[in-house]
Amino acid sequence: MEHSITDEINARRTFAIISHPDAGKTTITEKLLYFGGAIRDAGTVKGRKTGKYATSDWMEIEKQRGISVTSSVMQFDYAGKRINILDTPGHEDFSEDTYRTLMAVDAAVMMIDVARGVEPQTIKLFKVCRMRGIPIFTFINKMDRQGKEPLDLMEELEEVLGIESYAMNWPIGMGKEFLGIYDRFNNRIEQARVEGEDRFLALDEDGGLADTHPMMESSYYEQALEDIMLLNEAGNEFSEERVAKGELTPVFFGSALTNFGVQTFLETFLQFAPSPQSRLTTEEVAIDPQTEEFSGFIFKIQANMNPAHRDRIAFVRVVSGAFNRGMTVTVPRLSRSFKLTQTTQFLADDRETVNEAVAGDIIGLHDTGNYQIGDTVIGGKSSFSFAALPQFTPELFVRVTAKNVMKSKHFHKGILQLVQEGAIQYYRTLHTEEVLLGAVGQLQFEVFEHRMKNEYNVEVQMENIGSKVARWIHNEEDVKESMAGQRAMLVKDRYDKLVFLFENEFAMRWFHDRNPDIELYSLL
Length: 524
Ligand code: GDP
What we know:
Elements: H1 5-10, E1 12-18, H2 25-35, H3 45-52, H4 60-65, E2 73-78, E3 81-86, H5 96-101, E4 107-113, H6 120-132, E5 136-141, H7 150-161, E6 164-167, E7 169-172, E8 180-183, E9 188-191, E10 200-202, H8 219-234, H9 240-244, E11 248-253, H10 262-272, E12 279-280, E13 286-287, E14 295-303, E15 312-320, E16 322-324, E17 328-331, E18 336-339, E19 343-347, E20 350-353, E21 356-358, E22 362-367, E23 376-378, E24 396-402, H11 408-420, E25 425-429, E26 435-439, H12 443-456, E27 460-467, E28 469-473, E29 488-493, E30 498-502, H13 505-514, E31 520-521
Parallel strand pairs: 1-3, 1-4, 4-5, 5-11, 6-11
Antiparallel strand pairs: 2-3, 7-8, 8-9, 9-10, 12-13, 14-15, 14-23, 15-22, 16-21, 17-18, 19-20, 19-22, 24-26, 24-27, 25-26, 25-29, 28-30, 28-31, 29-30
Helix pairs in contact: 11-12
This protein binds guanosine-5'-diphosphate.
The site of guanosine-5'-diphosphate (GDP) has 16 residues, from helix 2.
C-alpha cells in the first residue's frame, strides 16, 4: 500500500539520547536498534563503527581512545513509526557538534545512572534541550544495580535541572532485589527476570496486584505501593501538553544491559514523542513539515569519511517536504544550485543511497567544500534561510601557527575549511593578526591538529593560552583598545565581531567595575 507523504511525515520520530559517559547510552541504543530489527544481535554497534571506518585516518583518534568523536545517525522502524536516533558523543571533551546535533531533533531521551544521578554533562546537554523547549524523556538506568532512592532521584531532577517530573513507572526493589517495575501508565507490573507474557501482572482498581502473587509478600512491593500513593497525592500530574513543551519529563526506570523496561519505554515514548516540528526562518516564518516544497538545514559536516577522496558529508535535517535523489536544490547563501545525485541515508551505520527522505529524516549530502554549518537547502523556488544555529561560547583557546612558514597558504585554507565545518572556532588578534582557536572541549584541538596534518599536509604548532571567559560586546563602538590588557585580550571572531577573552571570572568583574558602560554578553 502506498503511503501519502503526509502519513510518512507523521510517522517520523527524530530524537537524540543525552547522557554523561557510561550512563548506558550505547547499550540502550543497541537494544532499541535490536527491537527495530536494524541489527541482528544487540551489542554490535560499537564494534561495527570501528571496523567500518578503519580506513579513515583521523578516526584513529576514536579508535585509540575508544570514544566516538562524531555523531552518527541511525534509522529503524517500529510499530508503524520510522525512528531516527541521532547519536551524540559521550566523551567529556564532546564538542559543539553534540550541541548542534540537538538542534536537529524533536525530542531527547536523558539517560541517568541510578547510582550517579544527574552528572555534569547531563546538565550541559539538558540545558541545550531546555533552551529549545523540546520534550525530554528520562530513563533511569542500571536498576539491576544498587543505586539512589527513586524519590531522591526525582527530587534531584527537579532541584538540579529545574524540570518537573512524572514517574511513568516505579521500581520495585533494586540491584539483586530488583523485582520489576510498577507501571503506572499501563496499569500493570512488569516483572524482572521473567520472560514472555507471564512477566506482566494485572493491577486492580485500588492499584494493588489483582491476583494473589508471591510478590505481595515482599517488603519492596509494599514500599513501591507506598511510594506510588505518595506520588499520586503529592506528585505532579501527567500532562501531555506540558510534556510536549518540555516542562514536564516523564520518568522511566529500567536496565538497558539486561534489556528490562526498554521495550515498554520505547512504546510509551513513541506515543508521546512529537512528529517532525516546524522550524523558524530568519524572518520568523514557521516552515511546516507538511509544506510540499523540500527544505532543510545543515547541522553537521563530517569530513574525510574516505581520506583518498577527501570528501565531506553534510548532514541535513529535512524540515519540510520530501527529498528525491537527483533533485536540484538551492543554497540561498551561495545563490547557487546543486543537483544532488550522491546522497546517503544512515541505517545503523551502513551507508545506503537514499531515494526518498521526508521531513524529520536526516540525509547526508556529498560535499566537495561548498557547504557550511547552518546552510539552508531548498528544493523549490522559494528563497529563505532557517534561523542561524547557535554559536557556543568556547572556553579553551590556543594560538596556532604553521611550523613551516612556506605552508601558509595550505594553513589558511585548512583553517577556513575546518572552521566552516564547525570543527573549531576562529579568532584573530587585532593588529598582529595571530590566529587563535577556540573550543568547547580539548579534543577538538587534537582532532584539528591531526586533520591539518593529514588532510592539508600542514604541521601546526599550538601554544596553549588556557581557558578564557569569552564575552561579546553589545556596544562595540564604545570599546577602546586601551581597555584591553594582560587579563583581557581583545580579539575578533570570524565575523569580525570584537570579543574580550578574560583570564577568569574575576578578571571579567574587575573589567566590568572599571568599564561599567561596556555591555558584555556570552553566547550559548
Ligand atoms: P555510554 O558511555 O553512555 O554509551 O555507556 P555504555 O552503554 O557504553 O555503558 C557503560 C557501561 O555500563 C558498560 O560497561 C555497560 O555494560 C554498563 N551498563 C549499561 N547499562 C547497564 C545496566 O542497565 N546495568 C548495568 N549493571 N550495567 C549497565
